Amino acid sequence: MTQPDRFLLMGVMGWPVLHSRSPMMHNYWIEQQGLAGTYVFLEIKPGELAPALRALHPLGFSGCNLTIPHKLDAMTIVDEVSDVAKKIGAISCIVVREDGSLFGTNNDWLGFLGNLKQQQPAWRADAGPAAVIGAGGGGRAVCYGLLQEGAPEIRLVNRTRDKAEAIAEEFGGPIKVLPWEERHGALEGVALAVNVTSQGMGGQPPLDLRLDHLPKTALATDIIYTPLETPFLAAARERGNPTVNGLGMLIHQGPAAWKLWFDIEPTVTNELRQIMERSIAGD
Ligand SMILES: NC(=O)c1ccc[n+]([C@@H]2O[C@H](COP(=O)([O-])OP(=O)(O)OC[C@H]3O[C@@H](n4cnc5c(N)ncnc54)[C@H](OP(=O)(O)O)[C@@H]3O)[C@@H](O)[C@H]2O)c1
């Protein structure tokens, strides 16, 4: 763990990376905590992840976050992988230890849960079945989080069924895989519906999902945050469902990273959320 009495260096590695809001968020916390330091964009090509990660220690970095396409590749590069990252199958956060060794873990699932709890304080994972649409890296983190939180049933639907089956097999617990064609009916009686596909993201078509089976009380949430309101969330809001967008999933994994890097937990403020929302709306 780095003591915050030195100039702090952190960053996000990705390719592309300039769309990332992580620097804006972490630099807000550096100022909030009254520390000297900076969080930078690290534009790292896919084949160059290993030398880039090994350079973190000599350059004086405390750690970094990983985004597309590095989350899987990092698993075979770092010196130690947390049990959570092994289970989810991806690393989102790296800690550079004093001796230069690298520890990789995954905080995406904490971000997902933290966002729902802050935005909908009455939400409980054990309130009823959850429908999770999608089974990529984000889907794995969401299923992991919901299971940790005591979800009684997860109806998992993915275009490529094998990926959903793999999650059900690896995670165990009450995950029921349904065929892609049954995604509309999978919403019957759920307390939570989550889009973890890339459908609805800027430049992508909307998620093809009819909401007529979704109970009006069910919480609809998306892990996409560009745009802030996806067509799926807009449709849910228009029919009266409570909704939570994906921005908070990014924000709420931040304090977990700070805890590991510096043993400090910065505060998620409304001001931070507003700054980030304004930035995304201005794109
Ligand atoms: N808020 C956050 O902090 C956060 C964190 C992680 C990810 N995200 C966002 O979540 C989204 C998914 O990310 P990811 O990392 O999980 O990506 P990923 O691993 O590439 O998975 C993509 C998912 O989308 C599905 N999909 C893609 N095209 C589709 C189509 N035409 N029809 C139906 N399903 C389709 C894939 O299904 P197949 O398996 O059939 O290909 C898969 O389930 C991205 O928009 C990402 O930016 C947000």
Explain what this protein looks like in three dimensions.
The structure is a single chain. By secondary structure, this protein is of the alpha/beta class. 35% of the residues lie in helices and 18% in strands. The chain has 10 helices and 12 strands. The chain has helices at residues 22-32, 49-59, 83-88, 108-119, 137-148, 161-171, 231-238, 247-252, 254-262, 270-281, and strands spanning 8-14, 37-43, 63-66, 80-81, 93-96, 102-105, 130-133, 154-157, 175-178, 192-195, 219-222, 243-244. The strands form 2 sheets. A 6-stranded mixed sheet has the order 2-1-3-5-6-4, sandwiched between helices. α1 (22-32) links the parallel β1 and β2 (37-43). α4 packs across α5 (137-148). NADP nicotinamide-adenine-dinucleotide phosphate is lined by residues 108, 111, 134-139, 158-160, 163, 196-199, 201, 223-225, 246, 249-250.
The helix content, as a percent range, equals: 25-40%
Give me the number of helical elements: 10
* Uncertain residue ranges: none
Largest sheet features: 6 strands, mixed
The rounded Rg comes to 19 Å
Main sheet strand line-up:
2-1-3-5-6-4
Can you list the ligands bound to this structure? NADP nicotinamide-adenine-dinucleotide phosphate
Number of strands: 12
Average pLDDT number: 96
Helix-strand category? alpha/beta
Order of helices and strands: EHEHEEHEEHEHEHEEEHEHHH
Distance between the termini: 36 Å
Q: What overall form do the CA principal axes indicate?
A: globular
| SS strand fraction | 15-25%
